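Many introductory courses stop at the sequence. We go one step further.
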Amino acid sequence: MLKDITPEILNTRSENTMVSHLGIEITEVGEDFLAGKMPVDNRTCRTMGILHGGASVVLAETLGSIAATFFIDRKTQYCAGIEINANHIRQVAVDNYVYGIAKPLHIGKKTQVWEIKITNEKQKLVCISRLTVANLDKPEK
């Protein structure tokens, strides 16, 4: 990953987007991972007071997509998600956080595959997701 990228920079770039609207925060940038957290609150829960599976997918795609951009030439390329899946393992009640960590399974010239594990505050698995992104060339101006 890039040494000049910090969680603070990434969180600032996400202001006024779905990411900030859901309260997602990037918490750590590592050599081979990106970590973040998301509150389970009125923005991310179902009417039953538990985490909405779609919110877990947003967290997973956010972490995987941001991390994928660290492995391309951002001046000439961009990443676009082409497939995501998620298996929801356990519920999380309101007034908690979930924590995600994205790690690469494959970094290629044209595609990348990322595994994102989302856990609860006791580090028990809540959701496991796999994201495939395409590395695309920016259009010439």
